[in-house]
Write a structure and sequence with these properties.
Blueprint (H helix, E strand, L loop, with lengths): L4 H6 L4 H61 L16 H198 L4 H63 L2 H16 L16 H4 L17 H13 L1 H9 L15 H6 L4 H14 L15 H20 L4 E2 L2 E2 L5 E4 L3 E6 L5 E9 L7 E3 L10 E5 L10 E8 L7 E9 L2 E11 L4 E3 L15 E4 L2 E3 L5 E4 L17 E4 L9 E4 L8 E4 L5
Parallel strand pairs: 4-10
Antiparallel strand pairs: 1-2, 3-5, 5-8, 6-9, 7-8, 9-10, 11-13, 12-17, 14-16, 15-17
Helix pairs in contact: 2-3
Amino acid sequence: TLDTAATVNLRKVSNNELLHISRRLDELVSNRNELRKSADAKSLVAEQELYKAQTQEELAEQAWQKHVDLEYEADNMRDANGNKLGRGALSVDQLKALKQAKDDAHRQRTLATRQREHASEEHQLALREEHLRQNAERACAAVAEKALGAQKVRDERWEETVEKSKRTVALEIQGAKNVIKRHNKRREAALLAAEKERVQQEIRDKAAQLGLAKAQARVAEKEKLNRETQKLADKAQREALEKRAAAIIELKHNIDKNTLELKALNEKRAMREKKKKEAFEREKAEIEARGENPYQVFLQRDIDRKYERDVREAKEKIERKRQEVIDRIAKDDERQRKIDAKKHHDEVMAKKHRATLGRHFAQARNDKYLIEKTGRQLIDPTGRSVEPIFPSQETKMLDNTFGTGLLGRKTAEEREELIRNLAASAEHSQQIKKDPYGEFSRFVPKLKGAETRESRNEDPRQSLEQFGAESQAVAVVDEDALVVKELSKFELQCREKAQQRQKDRLATGTPQSVAGKTLKSSAFVSEPSTIEYIDFTPGVRHVLNIKLTNGSLTFNNFKLLPMADEVTDFFEITYTKPGRMSAGTSCMLEIAFTPQVNEDIFAELPMLAATGPFSIPIRCTTKKVVPSISHEHVTFDDVVMGEESTVVLTIKNDGALPTTYTFYDPETMEPLGLKKPEVLKIESSPVKAPPTTGLLSPALSPTPTALLSPDGD
């Protein structure tokens, strides 16, 4: 065949892989073009550097030739007689020119050597770029061959897809026809169902209109009642306001009266104080007139009064102590009398109990009871006595026939006569007319026309006779025959609003106000404030205890809400339910975290308190590598020629996982590629510096030391 082996292999791959080959070819072509441009640029730079090196060598040769000529002239200098003078006969300017020519020659040679080395480096770079370009050309050629085969395979698959699509379209057309047939059948069935639904809707509309009329009547009655209630409330409010106004006026009168009385009392007290002071001054003047010391007299009088008061208080205290002793003695006597009475009562009861232990006491008690109830001392329940004795004739003894009218000692005629007599009484006849079924009326279903039958005042006995036939007919009547009272639209809306208000109140909580202060912060305080599991290990159970404190103003409670579905299987919460917690009390929660995935988890623990919902954030992080260095830039400042400067660079891993590290040359990005080893060295530091490549564990912080030794350039 004309197919190559590569084309045969390409038929086995998928369309995505063929598309990937085409994209790979485009990338290689783009890379090849970039490498061509780079190789051409490097070649041009190498030629320019080579030209500069040749020019520099020519300048160095010219400078050296100039230096040789000057030395030759200096060595062959002669005087007028033809004798050699030597270099000692040269002037200072000539010597400086000779030295300058020598230095220029050496400098030009040094520059030429450096330029030649630089040109060689650029030439090597140009050769490397050319090598890369050739490799790219070969890769493009190889992928181009695959791309041609891939295009051929894609064309073949496209033709197969077209044929398959044609067959699929034919099948879809046939399937669409079948779908149309089924749709027509469903539409006809839907029309029939719609007609049936319309008929049922008409029935429901009629029932709704009837219910609406009843609801409107109920609402009108309730509004009337509300208006009457409002009138009574307004009247009560007016009376309360009038009473309040009267109380305020009376309070004002009382305040004015008390103010006048207080003012009068203050004036009287001031007058008494004034009279007392005047009497004191008169007495003082009289005492001074007698030639006595008034202050001594007043002091002696105060001492006498204090003595009399102390004596009086001591007598009162003695009398009070004596009365306390008398009361205590009386209490002790009363307690002792109670103890003696209880002891006597216990002895009497023990004696009675001992007396009741004999058979004669029980027989006497039974005989007394029988005589009180039946007039006899013995009843033979076996029926062997001469006269028939029934339990109900002697005492009330209830058996399983009580209340059913099936007493065994009465015949059927006697029972019917008893029932007729009871029904003929005024009490029972009125009750039967109102409700023929009695307490069992709630078990009798109401049929359509029941209200009409009641309005016609039919005989309840006839209704009772017809109840059997009607109850059998209920089994074959459809559901619409039963009158089921449904809630009106207004009642349904009220119920839904009440349920929604209850849900909102539970979800948002109620504000907490105590002594005029309203709680505005979180009701509960968690310690710690964030639940953190740092550097966890998947599959291992981690346990953390938190303390939840009631930080509200008064009593509060809380309950846990379900967590998010993504993380609920990872957490297990255990705690003792505290119930209603006082302000400041705490509850300990044990939270066990068992991760199953090795990824960070950020969630929250939702809770609901009486004051509203709150949550505690949860933060779970995996083990990570967190490398850091002590200096972002290694800078050698103020370094003088011939001096050494050292900078210590610390590499540290702050994470929980070990990692490797490698030193790269910043220019070539090659590992261990220090461009000038004699300039930048890695020497041993006080903490043994690591190699350029190695393992960096969380506990190790290697500190390499860089030493800068300037060479003058």
